[in-house]
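Hi all, posting the design record for the shared folder.

TITLE: backbone redesign
STEP: 1 of 1
STRUCTURE INPUT:
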């Protein structure tokens, strides 16, 4: 498709990413509401998707170099022209805050189950900004990790796709690329549905967790029989 000019082409790309950002923000807000109501967000979305015109967006972290950035280009240019965007910035604020909200929910669950102590062993599965991708630009997983660090948890970060040297240099985080042998955790947070994570058998998941531990599954890939907590 040939746009009429470069301004139209750039504007089209910006609003396409902004539209997705806002749609995800809306679902994220739903998930926060449903958490307070004690309703499973996935169950609600599965039911809603039976209607032909429902848009199948999922809650989660919004990072990367497009969706999490383009809305700011649009609002910056808009403000120069004297208009303060409302919906665009509201969506950005909500999505930017999801990492901290998710981290807080995880900590609260640890406390509720009497699993929280300093140096509680936690495994985070995924660091890049999207599935099966080594790109760590503007990943929101780092915000979640940094917030969890404030609680003095013993964090292990696993991502088979990212460049470990790059992560250490740019984010000051040590990353492993394989599941640790003979090591179990009190909590496992699934932030990305990388194929190697999707392909784990139930026994693999069970071998990761201590008795009474928590699976905090942001991507709906942990077997239901293990009672994962989802947003």
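Okay, here is what came back for every position:
SEQUENCE:
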């Amino acid at each position: 498709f040939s746009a009429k000019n470069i301004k139209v082409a750039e504007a089209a790309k910006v609003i396409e990413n902004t539209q997705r950002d806002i749609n995800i923000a809306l679902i994220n807000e739903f998930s926060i509401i449903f958490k307070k109501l004690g309703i499973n967000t996935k169950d609600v979305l599965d039911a809603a998707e039976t209607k032909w015109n429902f848009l199948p967006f999922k809650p989660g972290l919004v990072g990367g170099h497009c969706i999490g950035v383009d809305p700011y280009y649009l609002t910056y240019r808009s403000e120069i022209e004297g208009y303060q965007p409302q919906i665009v910035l509201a969506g950005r604020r909500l999505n930017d805050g999801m990492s901290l909200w998710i981290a807080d929910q995880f900590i609260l669950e640890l406390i509720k189950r009497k699993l929280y102590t300093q140096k509680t062993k936690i495994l985070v599965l995924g660091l890049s900004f999207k599935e099966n991708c080594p790109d760590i630009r503007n990943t929101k997983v780092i915000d979640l990790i940094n917030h969890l660090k404030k609680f003095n948890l013993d964090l292990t970060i696993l991502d088979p796709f990212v460049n470990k040297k790059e992560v250490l240099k740019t984010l000051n985080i040590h990353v492993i690329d394989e599941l640790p042998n003979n090591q179990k955790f009190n909590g496992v947070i699934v932030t990305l549905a990388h194929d190697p994570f999707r392909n784990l058998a139930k026994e693999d998941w069970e071998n990761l967790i201590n008795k009474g531990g928590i699976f905090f599954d942001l991507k709906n890939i942990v077997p239901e029989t293990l009672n994962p907590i989802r947003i």
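COMMENT: Strands lie at 121-125, 154-158, 175-176, 185-190, 209-217, 229-230.
Let me know if anyone wants the other runs.
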